Amino acid sequence: MGIAYRTDPERDITLTVWHGPVSCEEWREHVQSVVSELDQGSPSRFLADIRSAADVSTITDEHISEMAQLFARGAYGARAKVAVVAGDLFAGAEQFEHEPSMSGINTIVFNDFATACTWLGLDPDAAVATVRALRAEIDARPDEPR
After folding, report:
1. What is the model's pTM?
2. In this predicted model, what pLDDT tens digit does every residue of 8-19 receive, in sequence order?
3. 65: left (phi > 0), else alpha (psi -120 to 50), else beta?
């Protein structure tokens, strides 16, 4: 399981899904990949749906701070808007939102997917279709040892 994402430069959005177990290393690799795309100037809107993540026990408070710093350095000056739809992971997502390094990056944690989409100016139906496709992509991966 893990993380999958899709960037649509024309719509100025990166949509990320966490599904099943997610390790700190997977998250770090994901953030590094997204940040490398920011070097190319796109996108400025980010939607992370982490509601279907399962075991995230390898992710500590220190890792949350580290990932916020890594993302913030990459998004500096991009006028980024970040929406996290968190479900049961709300407390950790709020910690990410409130990290000092994230100041200047408009970040909100949501419980409702449609509200997050509206805040970002996205069509919720199109975003749901992308989330489903990303979850299916994760489900189709062969099991990998962690």
Report:
1. 0.91
2. 988 999 999 999
3. alpha
